[in-house]
Amino acid sequence: MKNFATVNADETIRIGREFGRTLPDGAIVVVSGPLGAGKTVFTRGIAEACGVTDEVTSPTYTLVHEYLGKRRFYHIDLYRVADERDFDNLALDDIIFSDAVTVIEWGEHASPDVRDAAYTVTIEVLENGARSITLQSAP
Ligand SMILES: Nc1ncnc2c1ncn2[C@@H]1O[C@H](COP(=O)(O)OP(=O)(O)OP(=O)(O)O)[C@@H](O)[C@H]1O
Ligand SMILES: [Mg+2]
User: Fold this and answer.
1) Which domains, from first to last, does the chain contain?
2) Could you tell me the distance, in angstroms and rounded to a whole number, from the CA of residue 8 to the centre of ligand 1?
3) Is any atom of ligand 1 closer than 6 Å to the C-beta of 32?
4) Any atom of ligand 1 within 6 Å of the Cβ of 102
5) 11 confidence band (pLDDT: 50, 70, 90)
6) What is the pTM of this model?
7) Which residues, listed in sequence order, are joined to residue 103 by a DSSP beta bridge?
8) Ligand 1 near 43 CB (within 6 A)
9) pLDDT in tens, 81-99
């Protein structure tokens, strides 16, 4: 487990980029934290590490965005997915359990087999507005 304190979006991206460089093909990353914590910003850093040059925007309504960089990269946002049954109905397993790197915001709503296989990133908003970012490896 690693922990970083970051005070602006550029630092969040940088931590995301460095973390992204360590990820193997097929990595699943669940990014948790309250609304507006910086989950999408962190995801941009991982995308950069995968060689994605397109702008990474939040897939809040479309659920999944696919990018092709040096590596294939998926960005999923489960904010609007109510629970695990909802999640199962989306049939995202072929995407998530692929050899692409997949980042899932609000991954709390994913199934246990997804959560159990994932790296986790937890972003906390501190009283002074800075962010504490905790990284945990996949098992
Ligand atoms: N380390 C940081 N310190 C201060 N502000 C930050 C930091 N990292 C990111 N931010 C700011 O947090 C804001 C929200 O970022 P972002 O959209 O990534 O949040 P989110 O967690 O994805 O939100 P949502 O829950 O809506 O998906 C942005 O304005 C960004 O500049
Ligand atoms: Mg977001």
Assistant:
1) 2-136 (3.40.50.300)
2) 9
3) no
4) no
5) very high
6) 0.97
7) 29, 75
8) no
9) 988 899 999 999 999 999 9
